[in-house]
Q: What sequence folds into this?
């Protein structure tokens, strides 16, 4: 009871528990806190999951959406940028998107001209 088998290893985690998702959430939270400190702002409650508090972090002038990847590429669709832009402008803030490529230690800060 309380354990299941994945391949040849035995784990005591419940079936619904996802270690990778837990690790990803922790990493995202750390990224958000660090970035909020850098811009002199704060982390959005629920990491932007609420319709009232979109985006990942903000200060008085910007609303930032943060992304990271372990891959060597990241796909950004215009509709995703436009949605973020609309949400930021409704708050009277500049939209900014930060994309981090963890393996290469590269961070891009995107703003529209």
A:
């Amino acid at each position: 009871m309380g354990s299941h088998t994945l391949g040849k290893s035995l784990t005591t985690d419940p079936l619904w528990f996802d270690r990778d998702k837990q690790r990803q959430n922790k990493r995202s939270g750390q990224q958000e806190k660090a970035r909020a400190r850098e811009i002199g702002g704060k982390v959005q409650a629920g990491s932007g999951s609420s319709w009232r508090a979109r985006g990942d972090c903000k200060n008085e002038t910007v609303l930032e959406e943060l992304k990271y990847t372990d891959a060597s590429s990241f796909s950004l669709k215009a509709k995703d940028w436009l949605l973020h832009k609309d949400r930021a402008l409704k708050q009277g803030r500049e939209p900014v998107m930060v994309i981090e490529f963890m393996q290469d230690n590269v961070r891009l800060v995107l703003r529209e001209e």
Remarks:
- The chain has one domain: 18-110.
- Residues 19-38 form the longest helix (20 residues).
